[in-house]
Specification:
Helix content is 52%, strand content 17%. By secondary structure, it is an alpha/beta fold. It has a six-stranded mixed beta sheet with strand order 8-7-6-9-11-10, with helices on both faces. A hairpin with a 4-residue loop joins β6 and β7 (181-185). α4 crosses α5, α7 crosses α13 and α9 (260-269) packs across α13 (331-351). The longest helix is centred in the middle third of the chain and has 25 residues, at 220-244. The N and C termini lie far apart (54 Å).
Length: 379
């Protein structure tokens, strides 16, 4: 084959691949746009590719096209975790801009409030600055916006992006992240004021605190004992006061939880509702789930949960999604996150008996729609 024809063939294959990558996503809305949010959190780096329809905040019209993450444990603040985080951030940015052909202006890069809180607590703020500078240098975009989101803004954006407008003023949202828990509600029928709720505890910080206490005995039984002590301390030191002073009663009828552990708990508790973005739960259901995590973890395996599904199509979906849960969370991190969720629910249940609890599965990308709309309006 003459060299010039070989080059034409290679070019043709490349163009076909590029077109395929660009049109690989199955969109569901008319007149929608595709955006990417890349977030450095306490646990690692997350990338979400989201189709956002018109008036997404009022209609809830956003569709998750791609959702992936890599665990890098940035808040350990070691050379190895710094490099892993930088590599993950760069890799996701390249995937979004090169493979998916998403314009850089439609790719938003942020560091979570959990990272900011932990860095301030450990006196490691320079690690954040170094990460941002290194990322900008590596992608050759010295002016790239990389916002370090504070707790207030993250909670505010999460509420706007996750809670539909029809329930905007009757829902108290709590996002349980890896490094902290934040949330709140809008008192009065206005966006002018947002009441912030926050805890310094998240799934990762609870798990880390329990692991530090196990010392020589690495058994699951000892981990559970130490986890219980950590959670009791968190409850007595922060959770009880935070809930009692939250001001949620009688304003909000619904208590909604988002974040990775909310998605994981919802998926494993009700696998048959795999297509539901939000499920309702009771305190007792989550309590039984926490017990099962320790006493009968095998019953939460992907294979076991899927075996109870009759539809082959739905069974395959359950296998895939529950496997994703177990890839993100191991048994101990599930125990830590679900334990924290239960402690928070317990205080709301004891103080406000009539409240309805919800677990939001797609909360991890909700902030993107609000961030996008805010960015557009500010221009």
């Amino acid at each position: 084959m003459p060299y010039r024809y070989f080059r034409l063939l290679i070019a043709f294959v490349f163009l076909c691949f590029s077109a395929s990558a660009q049109t690989n996503f199955k969109t569901k809305y008319n007149n929608s746009s595709i955006f990417t949010g890349i977030e450095v959190g306490s646990k690692g780096v997350k990338m979400s590719v989201v189709e956002i329809g018109k008036n997404a905040q009022s209609s809830g019209a956003f569709n998750i096209l791609k959702d992936t993450s890599v665990n890098t444990d940035f808040i350990s603040f070691t050379t190895a975790t710094f490099q892993a985080t930088l590599d993950g951030l760069y890799s996701f940015y390249q995937t979004a801009t090169k493979d998916y052909k998403i314009a850089p202006r439609k790719v938003f890069t942020v560091l979570s409030s959990g990272v900011k809180t932990q860095a301030a607590k450990d006196g490691k703020n320079e690690w954040i600055a170094n990460l941002i500078d290194s990322f900008r240098t590596r992608i050759r975009e010295p002016q790239r916006a990389v916002e370090v989101v504070d707790v207030y803004k993250e909670a505010y954006l999460s509420h706007l992006g996750i809670v539909p407008e029809s329930r905007r003023y009757t829902t108290f949202l709590l996002d349980i992240g890896s490094g902290n828990t934040k949330g709140g509600f809008f008192p009065g029928n206005s966006l002018q004021k947002f009441y912030l709720f926050q805890l310094t505890w998240g799934t990762k910080t609870v798990a880390n605190a329990a692991e530090k206490r196990v010392e020589g005995d690495k058994s699951l039984a000892n981990y559970k004992k130490q986890l219980t002590r950590v959670l009791v301390g968190a409850e007595n030191d922060e959770i009880i006061y935070a809930v009692n002073s939250s001001g949620v009663y009688p304003v909000s009828d619904n208590i909604a939880f988002s974040g990775g552990i909310a998605w994981a708990t919802a998926t494993l508790i009700d696998p048959e509702l795999i297509d539901n973005a939000v499920i309702t739960v009771s305190f007792e259901e989550v309590e039984r789930f926490c017990t099962k995590l320790y006493e009968n973890y095998e019953a939460l395996s992907s294979k076991f949960l899927a075996s109870n599904i009759n539809s082959p199509t739905q069974r395959e979906a359950v296998l895939k999604e529950t496997a994703r849960v177990h890839k993100v969370f191991d048994q101990r991190s599930l125990m830590a996150g679900a334990g924290l969720l239960l402690k928070i629910m317990r205080q709301f249940a004891s103080v406000y008996e009539t409240k309805q609890f919800y677990l939001v599965k797609n909360g991890q990308v909700g902030w993107i729609s609000a961030y996008v709309e805010e960015s557009i309006q500010s221009k």
